[in-house]
Amino acid sequence: MVRVSPAPISYGQLEALVARPADGAVVSFYGVVRDHSGDLQVEALEYEAYVPMAERELTGIVEEARQRWDAGQIAVLHRIGHLRVGEISVAIAVGAEHRAAAFGACSFVIEAIKSRVPVWKREIGPQGARWVGAEH
Amino acid sequence: MGASGAKRRLGEGTEMLRVRVHLFGALREAAGERQGELDLEPGATAGDVKAAAESRWPGLRGHLGGVALAVNLEYAVVDRVLADGDEVALIPPVSGG
Question: Which residues of A touch B91 (CB under 8 A)?
Fold first, then answer.
């Protein structure tokens, strides 16, 4: 299950969805808005996505992760819109028979999200706003 | 390099192709629009969309260097030949997570 939407994400939202009776491990990752970026204060992040492509990319990433790591079910949520400090921007849960597959697949999914899923964020702070990854 | 920003109208009976272009993030702000339709010459490629987009949205000039392309929801190489009705996206460096 993958979804990109403005719906708020809660801790513990995904784990029960991915756990099968054959699984001995469930690993989850939550990406959270932090209050700084380098030396700059951050008050909020604004995320936007090319939603249909982002969900398609996520579906492919999940399938790749399952095959590479022999993982079971994987669920991914990415939030878009205005997120304040402490809110969850991304959540991933992986079930697998063994922990190495669950950790490996979870790490693979977040790294792949950061490298190729069409989502963008803008940092909002007292000094103004700037798109991350668009310094030029 | 077949596309030309100078061609804007579909003439009667011509084989020009029309694509919808989507802009995101810093590019959306620089252009002042989220999407628009561009008319391209037959045989135009995904890479040609950059020049055509700069003509349509001058604010994009100088911003398309590290920008990737997607056609119909998939990343595309610059020499991907476009078809009428394709959905093309200009993808600035992503920063999700």
Answer: 50, 118
Q: Domain residues for B49? A: 17-91
Write the pLDDT tens digit of every residue in B46-63. 999 999 999 999 999 999
Residues whose CB is less than 8 angstroms from the CB of residue B9 and which lie 6 or more positions away in sequence, other chains included? B39
* CATH number of the CATH domain containing B82: 3.10.20.30
**Set of chain B residues whose Cβ sits within 8 Å of the Cβ of A58:** none
ipTM comes to 0.92
B contacts of A113 (beta carbons < 8 Å): 96-97
Q: Which residue of B70, B89, B93 is in closest CB contact with A133?
A: B93
Q: Which fold has domain A2-126?
A: Aldehyde Oxidoreductase; domain 3 (3.90.1170)
Cβ neighbors of B24 (< 8 A, separation 6 or more) are: A48, A49, A50, A118, A120, B89, B90, B91, B92
The C-alpha atoms of residue A65 and residue A67 are separated, in whole angstroms, by 5
Strands B17-22 and A128-131: unpaired
Is residue B1 in a domain?
no
Interface A:B, Cβ pairs < 8 A: 75
Q: Which candidate from A115, A116, A134 shows the least CB-CB separation from B92?
A: A134
Q: Which residue of A has its CA nearest to B21?
A: A50
